[in-house]
Amino acid sequence: MRIAIASDDGIKIAGHFGRARGFVYADVEDGEVKNREFKANDITGHAQGHTHGHAHGQHSHAPIIAALEGVDAVISRGMGRRIYDDLMAAGKRALITEEVEVDNAVAAYVKGDLEDFPERGCHQSHHH
Q1: Is residue 125 part of a domain?
Q2: Is residue 16 one of the residues assigned to a domain?
């Protein structure tokens, strides 16, 4: 299974999926992390500064979903409700967690102990 965790530094989980500087990709086999890598965020428009000129609710998440091909779960400390729902509809488990550390979140997810707080997803437009 492959997990993508929004992170600004590869250590701590980012507060918002779309604004994260990057993602930690963890490949898990038989309950163990076999590969872990941090890649710069080149998939979300917020991180690239493409938020001007349209309301938050009007852009497509299709490019993000496509970029996360092969990812089974996405973890962040916050994300918009639309991307949360779109990830779930695409067959990817989306989790909004209170956990701060990437490695702790991965370990908890693998054990089935990572709590999801979907009500913490933001619903309003973001003002930059």
Answers
A1: no
A2: yes
